[in-house]
Amino acid sequence: MKNYVDCRPKLLVLGDLMIDHYLWGKTERISPEAPVPVVDVQRESEVLGGAGNVVNNLVALGAEVEVASVIGEDRDGERLIGMLKDLGVGCEALVRDPQRSTTRKSRVIASHQQVLRYDSETRIPIDAGSEEQLLERIERLLDRGIETVLISDYGKGVLTETLTQGVIARARERGIRVMVDPKGTDYSKYRGATAITPNRKEASEATGIEIRDEATLREAGFRLKEELGLERAIVTLSEEGMAIFGDTMRIIPTKAREVYDVTGAGDTVIATLGFVRACGGDIDEAARIANAAAAVVVGKLGSATADWEEIAAFEEELQASGTADRIVTPERLERIVERLRNEGEKIVFTNGCFDILHLGHVRYLEEAKSFGDVLIVGLNSDASVRRLKGESRPVNPEMDRAYLLAALEAVDYVCLFGEDTPYKLIEKVRPDVLVKGGDYRGKEVVGSDLAGEVKLVDFVEGRSTSGIIDKIHTQGN
């Protein structure tokens, strides 16, 4: 894969801008006034939404971004402009209309679940004066190095047929690619674009063809391409990847991941497709990377983005399928932990030498895993074991010990550390639960200040590595 980390393409995002407002809390009871949950709000956050989430994704990837839209002359409009400028986004093509309200979507999230959304917005089409102003400003930007135009339609009235067709025509005159994330059932206003990216449901509704198998998918995809005069139609298929319709139909698969929130997944797809294509990547590579980016964001809550480090980590996981792939470096473990935390997983950490694996070890690790969702084992290196237990240990070298641990059903990841204590590794993990043996009762547990809680697990009586070694020596004599 080409290295896109240092690529800085210049893209224009045209569409419906909005503010996504989140109220985060927890709920433990039902209101006595109505059969609805009572949410104890603990914090609030605001991020760019709608076409603004496409902007967010492009900035996360490293693009230089200009944005074009019509927003209100209101407090939310001022807030939105401030958020864009904080990201370093160009706002020259933002038109203010005192007759419109800037869209704000407020979502109430309780215990990782969205329980309510309420909107404040104007959805009528923009007037002719705003169309003319916006088109003039966009044309000036097209003459100043824009490489790709991304149209993000959320059906709030900015993307009228006159405006959309005007932008597509002017971009085509200059040889500039136009990619569209569509809305509604009538796609005629997108005619002449380079590509559109509906999902399966949207493509079905726009073509009148129920997509239920590969044959109907093929029929719908090629109908979109031909009727709209596109270079390509791209139909996103959720966990199945995406289908690309050019001269032929090709399905670019992805790997399914647990979904926490699909909010903004389409924004991530079109942003990544546009970025990679603007950097010279072919459409198949762009689709593969966009699949990975979308898989990253659906594992997060709310409108989210994926950066190159997260995409690389996901692709690394795709290639990791065997026992050896669960043996990770501290650097890789840090990325894995960040992803797990974003997905709401409860992380358990324990550590030890685990020399000559035996029943006591396995029972201990099984109980440790029962305290959470993911068990990470810090494993003393050979040098560390020698310092702790003497020159005759370990009996088994570190990679043998690591492989045996990684092969256990209870263990998710194994990471070697060379220090006398695992404190530096625990600093990277910051587990929800830190597990140690029952012999630590009344003693200080290294890393307890970095963990959510500490659990002590009693060893199986009569089972120990030292006991096994002594027995071997006795029988040998």
Question: What would you say about this model in short?
Answer:
This protein is an alpha/beta fold. 37% of the residues lie in helices and 25% in strands.
Q: Give the mean pLDDT.
A: 90
Helix content bin? 25-40%
Number of helical segments with 4 or more residues: 15
Which stretches of 5+ consecutive residues score pLDDT under 50? none
Q: How are the strands ordered across the major sheet?
A: 5-4-1-8-9-10-11-12-13
| Shape estimate | elongated
Q: What Rg is obtained from the alpha carbons, in whole angstroms? A: 27 Å
What fraction of the residues are assigned to beta strands by DSSP?
25-35%
Query: Main β-sheet, in a few words?
Result: 9 strands, mixed
Task: Please describe what this structure looks like.
Helices cover 37% and strands 25% of the residues. With 477 residues, the chain is an alpha/beta fold. Strands 5-4-1-8-9-10-11-12-13 form a nine-stranded mixed β-sheet, with helices on both faces. A five-stranded parallel β-sheet has the order 16-15-14-17-18, sandwiched between helices. A four-stranded mixed β-sheet has the order 3-2-6-7. Helix 11 (359-369) links the parallel strand 14 (347-352) and strand 15.
Core attributes:
477 residues, alpha/beta, five-stranded parallel beta sheet, 15 helices, elongated
Please give the structural blueprint.
Blueprint: E1 10-15, E2 17-30, E3 37-50, H1 51-61, E4 64-72, H2 75-86, E5 90-97, E6 103-110, E7 113-120, H3 128-142, E8 148-152, H4 161-173, E9 177-181, E10 195-196, H5 200-207, H6 214-228, E11 232-236, E12 242-245, E13 249-252, H7 265-278, H8 283-297, H9 308-319, H10 330-342, E14 347-352, H11 359-369, E15 374-380, H12 382-389, H13 398-406, E16 413-417, H14 423-429, E17 433-437, E18 453-457, H15 465-476
Parallel strand pairs: 1-4, 1-8, 2-6, 4-5, 8-9, 9-10, 10-11, 14-15, 14-17, 15-16, 17-18
Antiparallel strand pairs: 2-3, 6-7, 11-12, 12-13
Helix pairs in contact: 1-7, 3-4, 5-6, 7-8, 8-9
